[in-house]
Structure formats: C-alpha cells, structure tokens
Amino acid sequence: MYCTGCGQQLAPGYAFCPHCGSPVAGIAQAGPVAPLGPFGAGTTAYAYRFRKLGGASVGVLFGCWLYWLLSIVPFVVIVVRWYDYPGWGQREAQTVSRESFPAILLIASVFAFGGFVALLIWLYRARANLTAIPGAQPSWNAGWTIAAWFIPLANLFLVPAVVADVARNSGAAEPRRPHLGALAVCWWVFWALGALLLNGANSGAGADLLVALALFGCPMVLVANVLLTVLLIRVNRVQDRAASNQA
Questions:
Q1: pTM of the complete model
Q2: pLDDT tens for residues 211-222?
Q3: pLDDT tens track for 70-126
Q4: Of the candidates 118, 120, 122, which has an alpha carbon nearest to the alpha carbon of residue 110?
Q5: By the number of CB atoms within 10 A of the CB, which of 35, 146, 153, 159 ranks highest?
Q6: With 90 as the cut, is the pLDDT of residue 188 above it?
Q7: Widest CA span of the chain, in angstroms?
Q8: Can you tell me the distance from the alpha carbon of 104 to that of 82, in angstroms, rounded to the nearest whole number?
C-alpha cells in the first residue's frame, strides 16, 4: 500500500499517512477504523488508548545525565591533579575518589536508580503500545521488558534484544525506521563498556590505571547517553504518530 499524497509505502491499517497526514485511500472513506483492543486486532470491546511516554522519558534522561555529570567530578579532579602532581600514588588517588566526594557519588547513585526505574516504566509502556501499531510483530512479551534486566549474566544479551525489539517494532508502520533496533544495540554496547570501565576506576587500583579507566569510561557513558536520548525521542515520535493515526 502506498500513500496517494507523498507516495511513501505504508503498512496496512493506517487511516492517515504518518509521513504527510493524507487520508489513506480505501480506509478513510470506508468509515471509522475498528478499534483495537489491548491484544491487537480483533478485540473490539474498547479502543486501545496509547500510553504516554513523555513523562517517563524525562525521568530517564534526567537521571542518566545527572548521574553522568556527578559521577565524573571525582575523575576530573583526579586527572587535573594527576597532571599537576605526576608523583601521585595509589593512596592519593583513592583519597580523592573515595574520601573527598562521598556525597556526590551517593547522589549520583540515587539519580542513576531513578533513571533506571523510569526506563523500566518507559520500556513497559512502549511495549504495551505495540499491540495497536499496524505491522508490529514483537518477539518478546511485555513481561520480558522487566524480567530481562534481572537475570544475572543473561541480561547482558537479553536487555539489548528486548529494547531493540521494542524500538524496531515501534517504527513498523514506517519503512524508514528499521535503524531504531540498531540504535538500541549501540546504546547498550557503549553503556555496558562505559559502566564497566567506570566501576574499574572506582576499584582502588593504581593511579595510572585509575586515570586510564576514567579517561575511556567517561566518554563512552557520554556517547551512551547521547544514543539513549536519540532513541527515546525517535521512539516517542513514531508512537505518537501511530496514536494520532488510530485516533
């Protein structure tokens, strides 16, 4: 099926083109679209109401970015002092990273936890909305959007698979959006590696290793936060367009 207004390919079930807003021939003239129930087409007891993602997205980004900004403070101080005092040893580095900034690191952990909870809420709502998006065929059910995070070791592979599944199927009705799944995987790779390096920088290793881990870990978490920001914005937009087409 193609839009008569802009010529873009469309998935079945849309009353209006998500690209230009034109009515889809053969659907808009046929009367109102049958409402979708919570389990997809065929359950018409009530119209599916898309769950808003904006509030949860703000919580995710607020927590992630404040965590990053606060957590790099000790490392910035270490790097600056390291170049000023190259004779620093392990004891001095540990003093700066652990004893001088306990309140900052604690607050950063609180923001990180808040961002994590908001991410779970966002992901669960985004997965629930897939039931009303034409062409969406997710491989993981809504329960896995939460459970995948809490399985030791396996979560290293389950989390990117679940997030990519939600992101990719959010754009199922828009042929130009297959990259959303790849964007989710890239985010997870940078986040996992960056978090691993930052945890190593807090392990009390020698000053040389501590500075090296911080110099590599902080930029990787920064890239992960940028990718996550882009991912949330794009998934929110395609789901908002899907909601407007089902209205």
A1: 0.72
A2: 666 678 788 889
A3: 877 766 666 666 555 555 555 555 555 555 566 777 788 889 899 999 999 999 999
A4: 118
A5: 159
A6: yes
A7: 79
A8: 20
